[in-house]
Each structure stands twice: as structure tokens, then as C-alpha cells.
Specification:
heterodimer, A: 294 residues, 2 helices, B: mainly alpha, Globin-like, 10 helices
Chain lengths: 294, 147
Amino acid sequence: MTRCLTFVTLLAVGLAGCSATPFSLRPDQGKLLATGGVSQIEGAGGAGLAPWAMISGYGSNASVGANTYYTHAKTNDFDLRSYGAAVGIADRVEVSYARQEFDTNDTGPRLGLRGGYTFKQDIIGAKVRIAGDAVYGQNSPLPQIAIGAQYKRMDRDNAGLVKALGATDDEGVDYYASATKLFLDKNLILNATLRGTKANQLGLLGFGGDKNDKHSLQFEGSAAYMVSRKLVVGADYRSKPDNLEFAEEGNATAAYVAYFPNKNLSVTLAGVDMGKIARQGRQRGVYLSTQVGF
Amino acid sequence: MRNVILTLGTVLLTVLPGQALAKDDVTLYDKLGGQAGVEAIIWGMLERTHSDPRTAKVMENSNIERNAKFISEYVCAKTDGPCEYSGQDMHVAHYGLGITTKHFNALVEQLQASMRDEDIPYSVQGKLLARLASDHHDIVVRSRTGE
């Protein structure tokens, strides 16, 4: 119930803050190319790993935007598939849904699982821009700031296993605040996100654990350079909690190239290091994400 | 962590050379091609503004030659060129025209397209946009609320 309230409050605060500009549900693609970011791994608008304060899609403050994405990350031992959709309303509120599937492949049996055992979860996200303008606030030191929440719930058939591994819960809520600033004169975008979370490996190994069962504060940072209007290179860093006795959890990094041929498509290719996962050592690999929308 | 530092380092090294240029006496105005360059950029932008369905309506009752003269002068002054802007205050000039962020973003795209036509490097394009970005407040926000 409190979770539900969190989301409703976020949305209400956001929509109440909408300006007096006449609003239309007709998509206007009224934002500048790439300023909606791409879909981060949990479905929110941002970079690969971190949510940004930008609102997903190309709807201006008088319209709506939306997109869908599919991301596949392949590391030494695992595959992570993520897909979902996000809607941006009045460049103020973002609502997103993501599905994540973490495939243990041949590593399953080493963990006492059947081969190809897959951890799955659904993520419902909400984000509200509360201050600043990342693009037009060039003379102001204030970045664009947004707050958000991500409600995550594992599939029922994974719940027993993650609890056996030491997790306390099979669902949880992450809360975050993101500050993003575009330095137009340097074509540079910087983002910092603080996240309060109990999620083990994004939530794919449950929430809380025998080592720590409280929300902990984590940092996510992004730096991106716009090589051209259509091409962005950048890097993300994301710290993660370490709640489980059975396996140490490490922090994640990614370095990416994102290509925006137009306002309907973006493709992101990244090298990722997801840190240590489930006693299988550091998981390095590649990440390919495609986003389609308006 | 080492990877992050390396990548951030690479990103910064790509960005920093732009800083060194700021030390010499070449103004942004010069980089845009001086008077001829700025006039060509603004003319190219306005041709688009007047024909693009997203913005044509707003421009219906305005004179393209007059706009070109004043906006070129404005950009010249904003980019450290040898001009003094003699036109109306941005807020006053746009008051009541009903210009929205969507219109303003379309104008930015028209300006970018015109700069590409004039072969202005992307790094220089960003510098001009940065100097003009705060006009969004006068042209869209204040001119609508009349504050």
C-alpha cells in the first residue's frame, strides 16, 4: 500500500507541476535529438546503467513521448535480457515498465541449479522532474533534478530460491534522485544519481540479505560526450549493495557508444563489467540495446 | 574502478583540447565565419523557420529580411563580434507570440541544420547554442507569462 502511495504521490506531484502550456496527447517530437537519453537497464530514461533526470521520449512540455527497448548483455557466464517501455508526459513525468531475465546458462549446475535456470523480475518505474532544465539552464549552475522510484518484483518461481540463497524478500523498491547537466559549450553531459536500494544484483537475486537487510545508499555516475548530433560516447559507474553472505557483489561499469540516427531509433553498444556475480568472478562482456519510439 | 577512471579520462581528454583554444584571441564570432558566416547561418535558419510547418505560423507576420538583420546583429554581439545589438529586448520582441518550448526546440534544430550547411564544426555549434540557450527563458517563459 505504501508502495502504491509512493507512486501515486510521485505522479500527482509531477502532473500538478505541469505548466499552463496547452497540452495535447498527440506526440510532437518536440525535444532535441538524444535529449531523452536511452533506456537504462531498468527501463528508465538515462544511460546504460544509471537513470538520468531527463524524461524518456521526445514529447515536449506540451505533449507526450514513448519508447520501447530491448537490451541484451552477455558476460563470461551469464546473459541478461531486458525489455520494456517508457512513457514521458509533458517532459515532466515518466512511467516505465521493464522485464529482466538473467540466464545462468551453463553456470546453473555449478550453483546447484539446472542448466539455463533463469532469474526474472518485473520493474515498474516512475520519475518526476522537480527542478532545473538540463538543456536551457546553461547560465545556471543548477542541473536538472528528478526523483524516482522503481518497484521490483521477482517471478514467484524464483522467490524460494533467492530466499534459500539468503535474500530476505522477493520484492522491493529502489528510490533515487538524479541530477543531470548538459554543458552545451563542451558537448558534455554529466549525471549523478543517488539510489537507496536493497536489491541484490539489481533485484535479480532478491532484496536484502543475511549480511545487510536495510536500504543502503548507492552512487551512479555518468559522463557522456557528444561527438556529433547523432553520436554519443560515454561511461557509467554504478555501485551496488553487498547484502548476501553467499556471494560478494561488486560494482558495475560500462563504456558505450550510442547512435541516434533520428528521433525514432537509437542503438547503444557497450562494454560492461558487472562486477562479481554469484561467485563466478567479475562478469565482463558486451551490451547491445535498441530503442524505438517517438 | 580502473576501467571507469580510464574511460572518464578518455572522455575528458577528448573534451579538454577545446579549452586550450579559448586562450587565444579567436572569438566565437570568427569561428562562425565573421559577418558573412553569421549572416549566412542566420539566413539559412530563417528560411527554414519560415517554411517549416512547425514554426511557419509563428513567423507569418514577420519580415524575414528585418529578422535576419537583427538576429545576425544579436548573434554577432553574443559571440564577441564587433557589433552592438540595436533591436528590441528579447522578451519584448517575443511577447504575446505564444512561442512554446516545442517552437524553440524546432528553431534550435533549424539553426543546427543551417550551421551544418555552412560546415561549422560540431564543437563550435555547441558553443553558439550555449550562448543562446538562456534566451529560452525570455522567448518562451517570460513572453508567455508576461512576468
